[in-house]
Design goal:
2 domains; Trp Operon Repressor, Chain A; binds S-adenosylmethionine; 7 helices; alpha/beta; Alpha/beta knot; 233 residues
Length: 233
């Protein structure tokens, strides 16, 4: 799978995609991440990507021209079923694990990172396939959101996680093994730390008892932290 990121701050991604499972998957050729500098599609001496908003007001708006040109150069014959352009925006639909599972079916994803006051709305209306928000808060740029979405989609791809099962038994999984609730708590050694002991069921080596404890603990944690997940149909 190929991930493209269109940004005015390409260096932002220098560290994050060079560590952990995403970096290993890149090295193994399971996925490719291509960072594109939006300024490469400007035609003036100052490489201008933004302009003042119509109607007045504070802040600058990213111009549509360089963004359209970038996407049309990256995908000259775009197949919209396989090549999906995503505008990152606080006004987008909320990104979640279900959206991550849907996006992993695409062949290529291209993330448009906004900055300043945002992106000329014609990008949302006529270029992007969808507009996604990572949560109800405002970031200063789409780059951290792109990181979040790329990471969560990438780890669902076959061959990215060492143990394939580890993306099945985790929070929000909707498979035969899980039903969209939170993961259970995890413990490691020492068995007792500062007087706090690891639950007995996890230490006894009885597989059925461990499964039973994990199921109950996951439900309990979901009830305490995210009760609305138990109300979903
Ligand atoms: N004026 C915009 C608003 O109130 O919705 C905020 C613009 S924000 C300062 C600049 C850029 O950050 C946006 O164009 C978008 O790309 C990104 N951004 C901000 N919050 C985001 C969120 N919750 N999810 C995804 N991207 C976000």
């Amino acid at each position: 799978m190929i991930f493209h990121v269109l940004t005015v701050f390409p260096d932002f991604f220098r560290g994050p995609f060079e560590h952990g499972v995403v970096a290993r998957a890149r090295e193994a050729g399971v996925l490719d991440i291509r960072i594109h500098d939006l300024r490469d599609w400007t035609h003036d001496r100052h490489r201008t990507v933004d302009d003042r908003p119509f109607g007045g007001g504070e802040g600058m708006v990213l111009k549509p021209g360089p963004i359209f040109e970038a996407v049309e150069t990256i995908w000259p014959e775009r197949d919209r079923a396989r090549q999906r352009a995503i505008l990152l925006s606080a006004q987008g639909k909320r990104f979640d694990q279900r959206a991550a599972r849907r996006l992993k079916e695409a062949g290529e994803l291209l993330f448009i990172c906004g900055r300043y006051e945002g992106v000329d709305e014609r990008v949302s209306e006529h270029l992007a396939d969808e507009e996604l928000s990572i949560g109800d808060y405002v970031l200063s740029g789409g780059e951290p959101a792109a990181l979040v979405v790329v990471d969560s989609v990438a780890r669902l791809l076959p061959g990215v996680l060492g143990n394939e099962a580890s993306s099945v038994f985790e929070s929000f999984s909707e498979t035969a093994a899980g039903d969209g609730i939170l993961d259970c708590p995890h413990y490691t050694r020492p068995a007792e730390f500062r007087g706090w002991a690891v639950p007995e069921a996890l230490r006894e080596g009885n597989h059925a008892a461990v499964q039973e404890w994990r199921r109950r603990a996951a439900l309990d944690k979901t009830r305490r932290h995210r009760p609305e997940l138990l109300e979903k149909d």
